[in-house]
């Protein structure tokens, strides 16, 4: 058993080192491919500019709501009136039937 291990251990070390070299080469190739794609499309990160129409005191959420709904946002229906309408609709249908 010891003699077999003496032959296998150097082979395993050689195989591991060869695998590490191959993986390093593959990762370099993938990185080069990504850089080539970026160069091809000339992707650039532009500095973000704040819009002058929006005041700086607004938090991001308020800016989004204002942009979507504007200044005139109708108040939500009250829960009481919603329930009242549902019940009144049922009673009128039952009375007609």
UniProtKB/TrEMBL annotation:
Biased composition (Polar residues): 88-97
Location of region: Disordered: 70-97
Name of protein: Integrase core domain containing protein
């Amino acid at each position: 058993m010891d003699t077999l291990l003496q032959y296998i251990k150097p082979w395993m070390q050689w195989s591991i080192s060869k695998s590490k070299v191959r993986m390093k080469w593959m990762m370099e190739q993938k990185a080069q491919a990504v850089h080539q794609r970026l160069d091809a499309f000339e992707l650039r990160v532009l500095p973000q500019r704040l819009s002058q129409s929006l005041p700086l005191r607004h938090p991001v959420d308020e800016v989004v709501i204002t942009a979507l709904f504007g200044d005139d946002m109708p108040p939500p229906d009250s829960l009481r009136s919603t329930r009242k309408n549902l019940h009144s609709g049922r009673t009128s249908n039952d009375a007609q039937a």
